[in-house]
Amino acid sequence: MIELAKSNAQLASAVQAQAQKAEAFDQFAAADGSMSMTQAAKSLGIAPHTLIDWLQRNAWIYRPNGKRLAAYEIKIMDGLLVHCTYMAELRDGSRRLVSNVHVTARGLTVLAAHVAAGAIPTRQGLGR
């Protein structure tokens, strides 16, 4: 009976710790803002080219007619990716409107789950 009570107390403690982690994870997923794919890869502990390759293979992003990467509309609507647009100044002094794909906080949490599941190889998984 005493061992059962100890075991129950340990399980309750473990559940409490997991609940706190889940709450923090949910708060992170609901945060505003976004980051570049390179920044997202660094946050996940994977090489940027590994993340970009995975995103292309899994229909998150594509390269229309050899141009800059673009996000699939469904991933934008799901709140996983956004396009950040800014004005870039070219060498000749002219300006050009440029759009880059960024990963949202919600997208980062989904990608982190894929990394944790082993779907996206990490640097450690590559033997680096």
Strand content: 15-25%
Number of self-contained structural domains: 2
Main β-sheet description: 3 strands, antiparallel
Q: Roughly how many Å is the radius of gyration?
A: 20 Å
Structural class: alpha+beta
> What is the chain-wise order of helices and strands?
HEHHEEHEEH
Low-confidence spans: none
Principal-axes geometry comes out as elongated
- The helix count comes to 5
Question: What oligomerization state is this entry in?
Answer: single chain
Total beta strands: 5
On the 0 to 100 scale, the average pLDDT is 85
Indicate the topology:
Blueprint: H1 2-29, E1 34-36, H2 37-44, H3 48-57, E2 61-62, E3 70-71, H4 73-77, E4 81-89, E5 95-104, H5 105-117
Antiparallel strand pairs: 1-5, 2-3, 4-5
Helix pairs in contact: 2-3
In short:
This protein has 128 residues and is an alpha+beta fold. It has helices at residues 2-29, 37-44, 48-57, 73-77, 105-117; strands at 34-36, 61-62, 70-71, 81-89, 95-104. It has two domains: 1-30; 33-126, no CATH class.
